[in-house]
Structures are given as C-alpha cells and as structure tokens.
Amino acid sequence: MKITENITITNEDNMLLMARYPDNHFDLAIVDLEYCIGASKPSDKSGFVKQKNGTELFVKQPNYTPKDWDFKKSSPEYFKELFRVSKKQIVKGGNYYGLYGGYLVWNKLNGESDQFDCELFWLSFTQRTDNFYFMWAGMMQGIYCGKDIKQALVQQGDKFKNEKRIHPTQTPVPVYKYLLHNYAKPGDKILDTHLGSGSIAIACHDYGFELTACELDKDYYNDSIKRIKNHVSQLKLQI
Predict the structure, then answer these.
(1) How far is the C-alpha of 221 from the C-alpha of 205, rounded, in Å?
(2) CATH number of the domain to which 103 belongs
C-alpha cells in the first residue's frame, strides 16, 4: 500500500518483500528484530506516575494482545537477504544476534523502572560505540533526543502530548529521526522489514525519505497504517 508519495508499506513476510529487489537497492536498512525474550506477551505495568508538577497520575498500560512473534529469532537466511538488498544496516537488538562491529547505545533515562535501561543498535558501517539519550519509560517521555543529557532529562510535562503506544516494543519517532539525521543522506532509500508500530514511517515522512517497509502481523499492520495516516492528516491540517 502506498501511504504517501514516499512511503510504501505491505502486509507480508519480509523474505517475500526483499526477494523482489535487486542487490544493493536500498541505501540503508533500519530494522528492529525479534529479541526472543518474550516481549510479545508483556506483563501489566499499570500504576501511578509522578508528574512534573508533583501530582501523581494513574496510568493504565495499553491492553496489548498477547502474541508469539518474540519467541523465535530471525533466521540466517533473513540476514543474507538483508545484506544483499541494502548497502548499510542498522539493527536494533543486534546484540541478541552476536553481531560484531559498531554499536549505538540508546539510554532511556528510565530511572528505577523495571524496563531495560538501554537498547543497542548495531551499525554495519563503523567500529565505534556511541550513545544518545531519549527519555522513554511508560508515561515518562522526553522532549529531546540527542547527546546532551541535561536537555534529555527534561520530561514532557503534558502527558496528553505523549506518543501513543500501539506496540509492546515500540521505538519512539524521535529515535528514528535521530538515526536518519545522523546516518542517512538526502535521497537515500530506506528499508524496514519489521514495521511494528510504524514510527519509522512517520520519521521518514517528516524528513522526506523514501521508505519501503512490511509488517507480517495483520493487527500491527492495520494499527500502524491508521497511526501513520492520522499523523499525515494532522500535518496537512496544520499547514
């Protein structure tokens, strides 16, 4: 389905999508793989969250439908195809696959939360290890994504402006914008084989990148398409 002039998303297996493209067709693949830690069946973490003004607000976690996609890993055949169709790769969760090379560390600044403190992105094109900050812990969401920890510690005060979660392992839009800003060039063709919540599509739309993506799960596909279309519509209304 062509969502916008630059965004194409299909509901299919990623191996079928990649098989249609020649070698090195995509300039950069940014993918968020299965970790095989049972994240597709999250526990309920509803509870009280302290707001910036000191009051406490009860926040109920989204009622995610338990699924089985995070009980297996992507296959060696998947990686062979990914490396064939894309020139460079960024793999969120590459540490779960024993990928060696450069890493980018996303510090979530989530304090005493029981969520993982950091997420690791494997970078195929560098040997460096770098980090950046974006606050992401339930209703605690930041307004800045980057290397300045002082700015990153400022919490979004109005919880109604928080990014809505539609996926149990959702990566927020500002993180994808950070990746695109720092590792993609104008005119690059971007590939995502695990669309999930659709955050990367919103980031690509806002920054003008051409994105080809797919999502196998029908529910996630429908929810992400709805989310992306809503975002595009709201931008048009603001113009």
Answers:
(1) 17
(2) 3.40.50.150
